[in-house]
Specification:
The chain has 453 residues and is of the alpha+beta class. 30% of the residues lie in helices and 30% in strands. The relative contact order is 0.18. This is aminodeoxychorismate synthase.
Length: 453
């Protein structure tokens, strides 16, 4: 019998450790396909890795009439062409070469039959990925930074990248400015009207919960990377990211929420459902957190989404493996407290990460329940498509390792304007004014930071 093919191994080149990935990213800021997945260090505490890359071997965007299944199969074929590779011991690194990019919320239209009432005024491709054969990864647990090279990368390119990142970090960057203040697309009266329609659907038994969002936007000039650096300083979160788009645009995400993670075929999703504002006053801040933890409404909403996600994971996980190890945990961020749960499972033998995405995207915490009916109502009542908002930034490597965010607290800079969205789950006993205020509270720090630049 012939020997099985030998698994190729990535090469690793150590670099000086930096807690803030912005210093390394500055070296590739203007490179094609520049992308950063950022754990928000040193201020945010939960994330372990930062991952950045540029100059992809291929760029893959979903076509307007392409089915989700066909696009995911294209991603699969590109991963296969790059080829399997292992990370050498003793490194524990999340990425050995593969795909990095985004799925917009509207990628859901390529997976499910949905109406098409909301206006697609931003014209953002519903998914866009690069296939990368190298990455710079910082491990904040081990306090290391290193370049990781897939075996397919040429020796000359390795040397070029080592030289590039061995130089002193660039400190200059262009400014970013709003030409006018950020304004909502909906008036309070229009928000109330949409809220009342959702209540009518809930009373009629159509749905239990709908996540409704409003968009804020303003014309802008300058470099979105400068905006991102200011935002990550004001609002450090463990699932942040920056992705360059063609013609000077960019995706800027300051998300606190994981969508799904796969490591060694173990799956975890961490839905957020339940929010209270932070306060400068310590006693008031503690009271807000305690009120959230004790709130029957927020616990019921969170449990509704946990049940939905157990069902979503059950489509691709081994029967009997889906568990809820964490229910109603408190996580606190600079502007809000959140109620967070965890749902886990193990991928079935005949399924992979892209099957999991096909079965569970978009995330239940930002649609509602039941999911498809909630998505239909969102399309009817939100005047414009969400685009990136509530989609996902993710990496998927050649080993099948994956991590992904839910792109809340996220902005899109494109065609001379910046857009930002705030939303929340509406249930039978929701109050429209409280929900309206919460949708603003969630993005207040982002809007104020942009307006101060």
């Amino acid at each position: 019998m012939a020997d099985p093919p030998r698994m190729l191994t990535c090469s690793v080149h150590p670099l000086p450790y930096r807690t803030n990935p912005a210093e390394y990213f500055a070296a590739i800021r203007h490179a094609p396909g520049a992308v950063l997945l950022d754990s928000g260090r040193p201020s945010a505490e939960r994330g372990r890795y930062d991952l950045l890359s540029a100059w992809p071997r291929a760029q893959l965007a979903v076509l307007k009439d392409e089915s989700g299944e066909d696009f995911l199969q294209r991603l699969r074929l590109n991963l296969d062409q790059l080829g399997q590779a292992a990370i050498p011991a003793p490194y524990q690194l999340p990425f050995a070469g593969g795909l990095i990019g985004y799925l917009s919320y509207d990628f859901g239209r390529h997976l499910e039959r949905l109406p098409s009432q909301a206006l697609d005024d931003l014209q953002l491709p519903d998914a866009r990925f690069g296939l990368y054969d190298w990455a710079l990864i910082s491990d904040h647990q081990q306090c290391t930074s290193q370049l990781v090279f897939h075996p397919a990368l040429t020796a000359a390119e390795r040397q070029r990248l080592i030289a590039l990142f061995s130089q002193a970090p660039a400190s200059t960057h262009d400014s970013f400015k709003l030409s006018e203040p950020m304004r909502p697309d909906l008036s309070a009266a229009q928000y109330q009207q949409a809220f009342e329609r959702i209540q009518a659907y809930i009373q009629a038994g159509d749905c239990y919960q709908v996540n409704f969002a409003q968009r804020f936007r303003a014309p802008c000039v300058g470099d979105p990377w400068s905006a991102y650096c200011a935002l990550r300083a004001a609002c450090p979160t463990p699932f942040s990211g920056f992705q360059s788009l063609p013609e000077g645009g960019a995706v800027l995400s300051l998300s606190p929420e994981r969508f799904v993670r796969i490591s060694e075929r173990q799956v975890e999703t961490r839905p957020i459902k339940g929010t209270r504002p932070r306060s400068q006053d310590a006693a008031e801040d503690a009271a807000n957190a305690a009120e959230l933890l004790a709130s029957p409404k927020d616990r019921a909403e969170n449990l509704m989404i946990v049940d939905l996600l157990r069902n979503d994971l059950g489509r691709t996980c081994r029967i009997g493996s889906v568990r809820v190890p964490e229910l109603f945990s408190l996580e606190s961020y600079p502007n809000v407290h959140h109620l967070v749960s965890s749902v886990t499972g193990e991928l079935a033998d005949d399924k992979d990460a892209l099957d999991l995405i096909a079965g569970s995207f978009p995330g239940g915490s930002i649609t509602g329940a039941p999911k498809i009916r909630a998505m239909q109502i969102i399309d009817e009542l939100e005047p414009t498509r969400r685009g990136l908002y509530c989609g996902s930034l993710l990496y998927l490597d050649v080993r099948g390792e994956m991590d992904s965010s839910i792109a809340i607290r996220s902005l899109l800079v494109k065609d001379g304007q910046v857009c930002c969205w705030g939303g929340g789950g509406i249930v039978a006993d929701s109050d429209w004014q409280a929900e309206y205020q919460e949708s603003i509270t969630k993005v207040k720090v982002l809007l104020e930071t942009l307006q101060s630049l």
